[in-house]
Design a protein that fits this description.
six-stranded mixed beta sheet; Immunoglobulin-like; mainly beta; 542 residues; 3 domains; 32 strands; single chain; binds CU-O-CU linkage
Length: 542
Amino acid sequence: AAIVEHSFIVKNLTVRKLCQEQVITAVNGSLPGPTIRVKEGDTLVVHVFNESPYNLTIHWHGIFQLLSAWADGPVYVTQCPILPGSKFTYKFKITGQEGTLWWHAHVSWLRATVYGALIIRPRSGHSYPFPKPHKEIPILLGEWWNANVVDVENQALLTGQAPANSDAYTINGRPGDLYPCSENENQTYKLKVQRGKTYLLRIINAALNNQLFFKIANHKMKVVAVDASYTEPYVTDVVVSAPGQTVDVLVTFDQPIGSYYMAALPYASTFPAIPFDNTTTRGIIQYMGSTSQTPVMPALPAFNDTPTAHKFYSNLTGLANGPQWIPVPLDVDKHMFVTMGLNFERCETCPGLVRASASMNNESFQLPNTLSMLEAFFFNVSGIYTDDFPDEPPVKFDYTNLSLSVDPSLVFTQKSTKVKKLKFNSTVEIVFQNTAFLGIENHPIHIHGFNFHVLAQGFGNYDAVNDPKKFNFVNPQARNTIAVPVGGWAVVRFQANNPGVWITHCHLDVHLPWGLAMGFEVENGPTPSTTLPPPPLDLPKC
Ligand code: C2O
């Protein structure tokens, strides 16, 4: 195993897109930022120099961080921010996972432009559970604002309203030729391919607030992994992914003409509909040695095509007994039922104003700001968070009922910083249930520090008698982010084998500052090798 070292110089940069100049925060002067390539078993060391004007942290999305919770990165959860002009070195070992993950800023909305791919290949002497592809290409789908994203978020928080929609989606940082000026500004992503060869596309949804459909005209895709967990090969002509998720697909370029578009547009499941960016990004696949001609455009699903999204999400299965496969733990120590949705918050400093809010089990999560939760855990500091996150919502009701009058006590939430305490190595099963106040939506829930098995998912209210009969214990997909169906539920299970404090949250960035989050506090194990070591000496101070 090797030590792989990188330096991230994070600073502001002026770029030109959509006919205008925009100042963004970027890593090493590029958008997306650098691709990190490691092998399973390697140690990754990244020196982050914050030369931007903003507080910064970097999160390694989907990395287990076994006994290295200090390197996880969510601001005020595992660390205080790296202040402008300061630096911090993230150091961690990558074990037990292979495939495509990514890294992104985990403070305010900075991840809109501070992100990149993190690719984990099998260690030497090991191979993929599929034929070796001719080439591997990261495809990062992003979201672009003609504005400073930190300002966009702050403006929304100030007014208590939803933030401005994005102005474009992007493929590897480029919006593509359906947007103004992209032609002249070289803002269409182009991939040259060799006819007859099979490529591995590592698709990452790095958009802030939207799930995306992705298609390549006239080409099938074979899904072989999601969220850096191998899947049973699944052939499809459309991929769906929620912010945070990754999808690895094999594509054989065997079509007759010279060029085809790849394209992505949002899957927006909200009801009643709220405004969102309903534009399409596209890039060009050019067969080498063919004369260029007008590329063929794929027929994309409608933005609200829930049946297509659900078919993709629910048909995936894990590659049981493949490399890095973890069997489903069969005995559950802790059952949780967690409702998720939007609410209102009364603004105490601004009487009369009602702010947008979001919650899990009616608790609206607020980050601390004087110390990180992980330091509070390690050094036994009280007053930063409490461990009384409820196992179920305060009242049971019809979660699909859109009426605010169903139980007025649930319409308003309080801010709190609560975690669920878990015994080391205990198995947790969570039913995530979307609620319908202020609209039903598909929430992509990301659990830091763990992969979980997705036992089942469906629409409507979870049925505790009949739905468990559908659980897949044999080959469920393993993920780090589950897009819980719109107006529906999903059941996940994981083993709490990693001590520390782990945030669990909706990966739509609009919902995170509103409070659609909670934490898990996993106790130390019985031995030194199952105990969280002390923080690195350069961990930023608050
Ligand atoms: Cu990809 Cu908490 O984040």
